[in-house]
Design brief:
This protein is α+β, with helices and mostly antiparallel strands. The protein is built from two helices and eleven strands; from the N terminus they run H-E-E-E-E-E-E-E-E-H-E-E-E. The strands form four sheets. It has a three-stranded antiparallel beta sheet, with no helix packed on it. A three-stranded antiparallel beta sheet has the order 5-6-7, with no helix packed on it. Strands 9-10-11 form a three-stranded antiparallel beta sheet, with helices on one face.
């Protein structure tokens, strides 16, 4: 019995006393930092609409990683209790509403803003129109090559492009 009480007491001390709550990123991009302040180094980036769990709050920053993981903190000013409409006001131009581009995003998403979607679909249309591939499986912004977008062709070959070239 004494052992059970000791274990319960230890769990209460090591566990977070903060009531968890859900929040959403409301800025296009938010930096996750190693501590609760802008002086701490950036560890990761999160994007508009991304759902996070808040485990603690300090100095205007919210901890968004569970206590057993390395801390990641985001400025509370970049978070919202409600999910933002990332596609609000976005209209896809008619020339980019093609059936052969159906596997590419057609509206802003968590990691793609409206300009990214337009650039990706323009590049995808170019790749198809110039017969660089017969079909597109998917496309996205590269995480390994800064400023690059890509489409994955049906033959499983990736075609890369400089995103800036396809933003008009």
């Amino acid at each position: 019995m004494k052992t059970i009480f000791t274990m319960l007491a230890a769990c209460m001390v090591c566990g977070s006393a903060y009531a968890q709550e859900t929040a959403f990123v409301k800025s296009d991009v938010a930096n996750e930092r190693s501590g609760p302040g802008s002086e701490y180094p950036v560890q990761n980036k999160v994007y508009v609409g991304q759902k996070l769990t808040i485990y603690d709050r300090q100095n205007g920053f919210a901890r968004v990683t569970a206590p057993q993981y390395d801390p990641r903190w985001i400025s509370e000013s970049l978070l919202s209790k409600t999910k933002p409409d990332v596609a609000k006001g976005f209209t896809l131009p008619g020339e980019l509403r093609r059936a052969d581009l159906a596997n590419l995003p057609d509206k802003p998403e968590t990691n793609l803003d409206g300009q990214d979607v337009l650039a990706l679909r323009r590049f995808g249309a170019h790749v198809l129109d110039t017969k660089q591939c017969s079909g597109i499986e998917y496309g996205d912004e590269s995480v390994n090559q800064s400023g690059q977008i890509y489409v994955m062709c049906s033959d499983l070959k990736k075609k890369y492009a400089d995103k800036a070239e396809w933003i008009r």
